[in-house]
Design goal:
The protein is an alpha/beta fold. The chain has 9 helices and 5 strands, in the order H-H-E-H-E-E-H-E-H-E-H-H-H-H. The protein is elongated.
């Protein structure tokens, strides 16, 4: 596993998706500023702290993993799902040695992590580490002690915007070739009208459609898409 140096850090990195990549993440037009901020961290080695929110299935976890995987191999990186940390121990010891730290599910963290997160944010201010946080809830709905809330408010805030109706088709067309699926336009139009319009749902639908085509020995036509959707959405 990339850039992990101890058994304790290996545990914290559990659940990381090592296949995720920014080249496979669809940024809507409304998310181009966030994309530029991420590229500034990765390409120009600029220290930035980012707080990313978005609804369930918006792709936050995939995005965090993509950021880490696309970082230079020489950079020391780590992914932590805060919702998985329930023991009363010092999880963030020695984190000042990392170059890039991604903390997922801030809104689901246990109360005993609040002081640790507060200290980590303070420590990261005087280091070269970039700290990227993600939450399904907006900051005003996250219940933490006042000083931590103040620290979180100072971090550059971005929302992963929903994929609107016009962009659902564009997202499908972007993701399909990533899995080796070349779909006719009328089939894309049909699928985009029927499925949920978020990154995770669109990606899942394409993967399942690819499986359907393989099992049924069909081509990715509008008729095949209609047959697939009849069972997939039932």
């Amino acid at each position: 596993m990339k850039n992990i140096t101890s058994k304790r850090q290996l545990f914290l990195d559990f659940g990381r998706d090592y296949d995720a990549s920014l080249s496979n993440f669809f940024f809507s037009k409304a998310d181009q500023v966030l994309k530029n901020e991420i590229l500034a961290v990765l390409q120009f080695q600029k220290k930035k702290d980012l707080f990313i929110t978005g609804g369930n299935s918006s792709g936050k976890t995939f995005l965090l993993n993509s950021i880490l995987n696309d970082a230079e191999i020489s950079k020391k990186t780590i992914y932590v799902d805060l919702s998985k940390l329930t023991q009363n121990q010092d999880y963030f010891k020695d984190f000042e040695t990392f170059d890039l730290i991604c903390l997922d599910n801030i809104d689901l963290m246990h109360a005993n992590l609040e002081i640790q997160l507060f200290n980590l944010i303070n420590d990261s201010r005087t280091s070269e580490a970039s700290l990227i946080l993600a939450s399904s809830q907006p900051l005003n709905l996250i219940k933490v002690f006042p000083d931590l809330f103040s620290r979180l408010k100072e971090i550059n805030f971005f929302k992963l915007n929903p994929i609107d109706g016009d962009e659902a088709n564009e997202c499908l067309a972007f993701l399909a070739p990533k899995i080796g699926l070349h779909i006719e336009q009328d089939a894309l139009d049909l699928i985009s009208k029927k499925i949920r319009r978020d990154f995770k749902s669109i990606k899942k639908a394409l993967i399942e459609f690819d499986k359907f085509l393989y099992s049924e020995k069909k081509q990715p036509t509008k008729m095949s898409a209609a047959s697939f959707l009849k069972n997939y959405l039932s």
